[in-house]
Design goal:
homodimer; nine-stranded mixed β-sheet; 10 helices; alpha+beta; 25% strand; globular; 14 strands; Glutamine Phosphoribosylpyrophosphate, subunit 1, domain 1; four-stranded antiparallel β-sheet
Chain lengths: 326, 326
Amino acid sequence: MSGVIIVHGGAGAWDVPKDRAAASMCGVKAAARAGYKFLSEGGSAVDAVEAAVMSLENNPLFNAGTGSILNEDKGIEMDALIMDGSNLKAGGVCSVTNILNPIQLSRVVMDKTEHVLLAGVGALAFAKEMGVQTATYEELHTELAQYKYDNRIGIKGTKGPVLEYKDTVQSIHSDKDLGTVGAVAMDKDGHIAVATSTGGMTGKRPGRVGDTPIIGGGMYADDSIGGVSCTGHGEAISKVCLAYRILQSMSSGTSTEQACTDGVQHMQEKVGGVGAGVIVIDKEGQPSYSFNTGGMAWAYIDKNKDIHSGMLPGDHNTEKFKPQAS
Amino acid sequence: MSGVIIVHGGAGAWDVPKDRAAASMCGVKAAARAGYKFLSEGGSAVDAVEAAVMSLENNPLFNAGTGSILNEDKGIEMDALIMDGSNLKAGGVCSVTNILNPIQLSRVVMDKTEHVLLAGVGALAFAKEMGVQTATYEELHTELAQYKYDNRIGIKGTKGPVLEYKDTVQSIHSDKDLGTVGAVAMDKDGHIAVATSTGGMTGKRPGRVGDTPIIGGGMYADDSIGGVSCTGHGEAISKVCLAYRILQSMSSGTSTEQACTDGVQHMQEKVGGVGAGVIVIDKEGQPSYSFNTGGMAWAYIDKNKDIHSGMLPGDHNTEKFKPQAS
């Protein structure tokens, strides 16, 4: 086989206009193709997930890279992480500004430093030193992100530091499009990699770091078990180490589907998380997706090169791979 | 019972002068007493671990708060995290500067925001807004941290971004005193809390975030299983979600001792970590410590109010609690 890749474009209510929903579906399929291109040419899973996430970061519809949401001060601060399941190497950035592709910077952190995670101004200085492409605020800013900021329920009037938990729930439900992105791939050698990227939550405090750059929280990769990327309420996901928990459960023989269901249920029981979406590739190369939110844009390309995709519960479209379509 | 508390002052070679070793032992015992004071007065485990870690942060011998090590640019950037095992609430900061007690700021993040982790300038701005005590560089800087920076093997001559793994190993072994701090406590109601704080690794890249502020990496607390704080090579600990792994193992019936041994062995097999230290309180209130490094300064106060402490392998001193000694 050439390999397998699965991507998601965030879980949420997805109560979005039909034209934007269709554009999001095109976006996740294009990202899966962008990653698969590497796999089909014999490239690594790490290259594939980096390319897939870059595609989503460059798509202004998704909340990562260009199109990242605005924080309380209208700033754009991004988190990302990439992990190689063959050796558990990882690299990530948190609360970083002015980077065109945070996942590209994460890759350089993984490959060129002894560290796993760089924050804020230190991460930006490292990017400049390494020649990773920067971006102005205007280049990252989109009308969609501004619209979300201007219309967000639960932030206006609660400008102070205390946001009650019910406001968080409210904001999750009212935020039509969370849009954090992630990708999991297995290459021809059976190696698994995961990449995640996000702008966070609209109206978040400056400096807030979610689950996306947290190893074991928003993602994990281990060739001997599988790879997982999670999306949803970052604080809830972090508190229960959701990605690691799901893989540990799979490792002890639980089916992927059951491990995802159990993991999200554990999260909701323990910390009241409002729901989450998960994409997985197991050690046999079987891709899976799971969400208990209103929707999650997802797409995968399987061992037969068929492209599968969907967004709402029950959606599952299949089409033949057309490389020219990428 | 009043409660139980265990603290550590970092794992490493501990090839330190005898007078400094003795001072470190006084430091961990004083920290255990500072936390126990809350427990004996009916206070919460969260209050106890915050007080214990503040005591270690304020002690210039330890690499946290005052006495934090210097990064590559001689800057002082600190990480900390506190977690309440009764509800899995958590609060932390990473790569934050100019804070006298990062664990105090972490507590405010936990109690007064909807977020779990704040980074860098955002974390500092939040501290100022909330009136959390700041500190100048000079107030946090110590001669000991400067000495470590000036004499560090493996940093000089590798000023560039690439530090080979062997350099990391070298630096761990040559850094006589890692000194990251942590505390785990159980209160009279059986609630468990964990707090951790660090200045990181001498010569680290600006912005580097280790395992200390990562839920499930350097620490975890869950009343239904126990509480864990880890210390050692932060990148290695993060990559295997060491604290969460140990608790999951205990949850499935493995003894605390075996779970710690298995966890650290897994880390060394998977990512070549050079060793680690772990402190634990299980759901029955039994404190434990474990390390496979040259030493770890630790102290605990048990249900009988006896104070136990040690540093080198085999050390285990016991004395009666004398409240006036705090």
